[in-house]
Each structure stands twice: as structure tokens, then as C-alpha cells.
Amino acid sequence: MENFEEFARQRLDHNRQRLALKEQQEQRLTLAYAGGMFLVTTELMALLATWPENDILYLVDSYENPVEIVDATDMLVACRQRWYEVMNDWHNQYQELKKVRRVGQLSE
Amino acid sequence: MSKGALLLATPHDTIDYIGFAKLAAKLVEKHLGIDTHIHIGEARPGNIRAFKWHDGTIDRVQWFNSDRPLAYDLSPFEETLLIDVDYMTFNNQLKDYFGGNHEFLCYDRVWDVTHTDSMKHERYMTRAGHPMLWATVVYFRKCELAYNIFEMMKNIQTNWRYHCKFWGFPGSKYRNDFSLTLAHQLMQGYDQGTTFNHPLPSLSTMDTIYKVQGSELFIKYQYHGSYNALKIKDTNLHIMNKACLMDPEIRGELERYADV
Question: How many whole angstroms separate alpha carbon B183 and alpha carbon B144?
């Protein structure tokens, strides 16, 4: 029993928790689109946002294959949706974790 | 085209591999929405493995791992996700790999979720320092490349001692990760081939899950003699600490989550 109490009183290692949260959220920032696999980044979204409408775009995916994107706007919508889901969840979890001081508070 | 997950389990005296397989299959069905097939293999003694658990105890147990090279022959699916029975699925990330152009994928990096780098000795194998691949999760479609890789794994398994000496790696026991690494290298023409685009989330045998709350896992880990904790959520996890999967409370919570 003493061990459990001691464990619960232990100061939470925020840095490891922050890194774990970062890794798990970054893994979710992948989008399967038009047969390719893409990492959703601000650069990708910026390119899609500025690409002229009705112009075909060829992008190199995470597996270094060229993928034809017929509708850049449609891909931008999918990217923004994924970005919003992940970043919103990441931010919410981070805000919650900032309040945690002791290990025992983590699962409260 | 049929797609599904294949899990290979073997009856065991002390570790409930078949129970783990049923749980892992339920989680796959819940999150990936694909069929699952559990193959119960024959317990062929020979390999012994020592596990050091989080409480410091060491278990020397039989290790039945000889069926994995047969996965290509055993899979009833055109596209297969071959997973270890201690790999628990908590999100739909792997679903994206189905229906693409991939022929064979596995992990080339491991992410120790505790960030204590407890698997740092598993980055390379052989004298030549081949980057080690993990057989924990493998995606393959029925194609020539996948067939050749699994056939090569059979060859390496049959001639294990020879390959240990030839490539230069410890060969006291047959290990699928080593066998896959070599087979993958050889069949890709000494190239790295394709891997998943993210590392394999893993929990070492020395760290444990102390609480489960839905898809949130609370992990107790040891670092430089002191304990700490962290939480992961909606994250697939290779739980090497089978002892914590045998804990009735943890197992019960995981079963309840899988059933919802």
C-alpha cells in the first residue's frame, strides 16, 4: 500500500508525457488520399490552398510515389479536417496535462 | 478483394496467448472493421525465452513462435494484416494501408511510449549492422514479393544456425524479427523496401499498464531507479509485458472496452 501511495505522490515527469502526446498525435497526421499516403503539414495545406482551381496537381507522397490530385480543393478540405481533429485533441489533452502535478492526478 | 487480420496463437501453460488473440481480434474488428482469423498452432517445444517483468521477477517459458513464416499460406485473405496477439489496436490508423499499392509493409522503428529508450539495443542486428525490422505487425497482399519473403523466412528458420554464423547475430533461439529482417533485405535486392510511415508503439516488459479507462492506458515505468507514469490515448500498443495483460483487472477493462 505504501508503494502505491508513494507512486501516486511522485511528481509527474511532464517532459516524457509531453513527448508521448506529441508522438501519438503526429502519428495521426497522416491522410490516405487518391491512392497515396500524405503527411498533413502546414506546407501541404498552403500549397493546396494556392493551387489554381481545376488545375491537376501531382504530389509525391510519403512513399515517394507521384500521385495525381484532380481536385486540390477537395484534398484541402480533407487535410484541414484531419488537421483540426488532431490539433484540437492535442491541444485539449495538453491543457489538461498542464494541470497535473502528481502521478495520482493523472487518472482522476 | 478480401481483407482481414491474421493472428497466430499457441496453447501455453502460463501465458494465455489464445485469450490475448481473441482480445486483439475484437479490437481489430472494433477499430478497423475487417474480418479476423485466429490460427491456433501446435505447441512445438524447443525455444525458451526469459521475460523480466516490471516487478523484477524473471520467467523462463517456452516460446512458440515457429508458425509466423507460414502466415502467407495460412491467411485466407487477399490483403492481410498479420499482428502479434499482444498488439492491441486502439485506432483506425492501419486501415489506410488497405487498398493501396503496397505489397509488403512492416515496422523499421520502434517507439518506446515511455520515452526511456528501453529498446535501444534492438535497432540493428548482424555484424553488418542491418537495421532491424519488426515482425509484430506486417501488412501483405498475396503477391510474388510477399510469397518470396515468407518462403525465405522458412529457409532461414530451417537453416537457423547457418544464417546466425553467416550474418553474425546471436542465434540461441529462433526469432522472427531477425528472420524477417534478413528475408526482407534479400528479397528486396539488399534494399530496405517499404515500411510503415510511423514507428511501432511499444511497451517494454519492464513497464506496465496500471489502469485502463476506455481507450486511455495509464502506464507505470521505471527510469533510473524511480517510477513515474504517463497516459496514452487512442494509441495502438505492442504490449511486451504479458504479465500485465494477465492481470484480471487490466484484462477485464480491456475486454469491456473491446465489447462496447
Answer: 13
CATH numeric code, B3-206: 3.90.550
Could you tell me the residue range of the domain that residue A91 belongs to?
2-106
Domain boundaries, chain B: 3-206
Chain B residues with beta carbon closer than 8 angstroms to that of A13: 223, 228, 230
Whether B229 and A62 lie within 8 Å, measured CB to CB: no
Cell output for B182: 534478413
Between chain A and chain B, the number of residue pairs with CB atoms below 8 A apart is 80
C-alpha cell at B232: 496514452
Tens of pLDDT along A17-45?
999 999 999 999 999 999 999 999 999 99
Could you tell me the three cell numbers for B136?
Answer: 509484430
A27 chain-B contacts, CB cut-off 8 A: 93, 198, 201, 235
Choose the closest CB to A27 out of B102, B198, B213.
Answer: B198
Which stretches of chain B score pLDDT less than 70?
192
Do the beta carbons of residue B29 and residue B83 sit within 8 Å? no
**E-state strands within B44-133:** 48-52, 58-62, 79-83, 87-88, 104-107, 110-112, 124-125, 130-131
Supply the pTM of this predicted model: 0.92
The total of other beta-carbon atoms located within 10 Å of residue B222's CB is 17
Residue A11 is classified by DSSP as B
Whether A24 sits inside 8 A of B234 (CB atoms) is yes
Amino acid code (one letter) for A107: S
Contact, A4 vs A102, CB < 8 A? no
Find out whether B217 and B251 touch, Cβ atoms under 8 Å.
no
Contact across the interface for A24 and B197, Cβ inside 8 Å: no
